Structure to design on (322 residues):
């Protein structure tokens, strides 16, 4: 037993030395994105990874492993060696899953080590298929009351933040819409583009190009104030449901539990530095996100608070664990 303890302490010391060594990383870092390519999480992950790679003088490879609202990719990181070479770039879904899944294959706060909160989102844009009759959220509410012709909406998956915000809106408006889940933001948006569903609540980064080209119509923005990139798009509160607002969640970096603190600290410092770079900030801000880069301790406290918050929201709107 004593030999095992000594060996574990030695491994920790070596890992800490590696984190301080200018040759770290000496092989590519795998940054798992547990969602499909092309969505907001993917755009943010690749933008940040490119700059941190440059700073480290190494290579961070973004690995998309979508499925089960981020659970598939998250479990890959949970099961990876805690050596700083397998990380997770994820979204608000990781705080929602404990409340909407009957049994997770991991304990979020015990099996993962928060590195930093990458960014906070301002709001979701509500986009619709151009052929949809609604021109405002007031119209959506009225159309959804006609049970003979149900309104269908797409999301990035059951329990995803795009699902939760839509159900929050429906509950507040006293309506019911048909949920059509997809494996990620990009395929969910494609469903709107193809007219398979009528609308979607989507993080702005993924939708703004299609809004500006006219391929989808922007009905409203869920933030407290209008988004500066689309100043002509009213808030939901202005457009049909006074008082309703919801931010667009956040992005977070995590590592496997027991990753040495020195490695966690090094990665947080590099991420924070990268998020101050103008070319990185521009991508995040134009996508409706406020870059952060806070400390591991602050990230852990915030994540724990978000898990409690979304648990309360899920219970309030009556979503049942699946």
């Amino acid at each position: 037993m004593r030999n095992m303890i000594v060996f574990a302490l030695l491994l920790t010391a070596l890992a800490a030395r590696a984190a301080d060594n200018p040759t770290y990383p000496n092989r590519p870092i795998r940054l798992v994105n547990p969602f499909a390519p092309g969505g907001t999480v993917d755009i943010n992950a690749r933008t940040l990874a490119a700059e941190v790679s440059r700073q480290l003088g190494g290579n961070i490879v973004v690995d998309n492993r979508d499925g089960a609202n981020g659970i598939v990719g998250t479990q890959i990181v949970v099961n990876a060696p805690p050596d700083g070479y397998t990380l997770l770039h994820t979204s608000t879904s990781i705080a929602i899953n404990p409340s909407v899944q009957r049994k997770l294959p991991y304990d979020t706060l015990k099996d993962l080590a928060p590195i930093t909160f990458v960014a906070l989102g301002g709001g979701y844009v509500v986009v619709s298929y151009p052929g949809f009759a609604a021109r405002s959220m007031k119209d959506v509410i009225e159309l959804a009351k006609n049970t003979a012709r149900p309104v269908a909406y797409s999301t990035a998956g059951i329990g995803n933040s795009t699902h939760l915000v839509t159900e929050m809106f429906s509950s507040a408006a006293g309506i019911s819409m048909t949920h059509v889940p997809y494996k990620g933001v990009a395929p969910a948006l494609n469903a709107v583009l193809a007219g398979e569903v009528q609308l979607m609540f989507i993080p702005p980064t993924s939708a703004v190009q299609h809004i500006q080209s006219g391929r989808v119509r922007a009905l409203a923005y869920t933030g407290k104030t209008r988004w500066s990139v689309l100043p002509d798009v009213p808030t939901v509160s202005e457009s049909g449901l006074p008082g309703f607002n919801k931010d667009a969640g956040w992005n977070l970096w995590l590592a496997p539990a027991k990753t040495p603190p020195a490695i966690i600290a090094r990665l947080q410092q590099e991420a924070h530095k990268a998020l101050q770079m103008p070319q990185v900030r521009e991508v995040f801000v134009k996508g409706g996100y406020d870059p952060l880069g806070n400390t591991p301790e602050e990230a852990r406290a915030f994540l724990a608070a978000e898990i409690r918050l979304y648990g309360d929201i899920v219970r309030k709107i009556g979503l049942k664990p699946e």
